[in-house]
Amino acid sequence: MKKKFLLFSLSAVTLGTVLMSDSNGPSNIYNGVKGNPSNCSSCHGPASTATTATIRVDSTGGVAVTKYVAGMTYTVTVTGSHTINTKFGFQFAAVSGTGSAQVKAGTFGTTLPTQVKKLTMSSVDFIEHSATITGPLSKSFTWTAPATNVGDVKMYLTVNAVDGNGSDNSADISNNTVSTLTFYAPPTSVATVAENATISAFPNPVMDELHLQLNENFATSTVSVFDITGRNIMNTVVAPNAAGSTTLNTSSWVPGLYKIVVANANGSNTISVVKQ
Fold first, then answer.
1. How far is residue 137's CA from residue 78's CA, in Å, rounded to a whole number?
2. 19-183: CATH architecture
3. Neighbour count for residue 248 (Cβ, 10 Å)
4. Quick one: which of 44, 51, 229, 250 is 20 to 30 A from 189 by CA?
């Protein structure tokens, strides 16, 4: 009887270890990179949109972007939630290429938030949880874009919402999402100025928010901001409201002179502003 009881106890410990093995982060790819599974259902419950998963990429000043400039550093924020489950894990990666030929795109910063780690699998760098996170999930880290144009960069994220009981994974619900950043080569000069594409900016000098007024020829445009040294500090795509205005967050800009270039298929125009 003692031997049988010991065997049962060891089996229970082994099972518990398997069920809890992902509490320090998964050891395999579960977010869809290189054609691997895009959720955690192989070890947890089924995938479902009941768990939310979102990716936001911000340039300087907290402006969300859908394009990347070679060598520019951005802040990536991954979030997730569930109406019932309160514990979370996640896995994130940025890659270029397609299918099994995908490779890492860009680099992650060395300073990571608590309960987060970086590791490499199949020559791709991943950011994932290093301990179970009490939700809702929200973690931010820096990502520097590739030094050259590598085509589209796809960002993969899987969020797993778990009940945390450690004995039954069937109630754990995962979900994944993919965001794409396209390459953008910011203009270094205003070679083509459309006379009928006008812009204005106010207040100027500016403190924390700059309002751009664009006419109908700039319905959807790319806004690039350069400091006095010519360094590109911001790139974002804007879609002005019905009145033709859009707003830039300038709170993180250092005081000085800036050039703002607005461009689209109709041409481009530039304006200078001063940050106080």
1. 8
2. Sandwich (2.60)
3. 23
4. 250
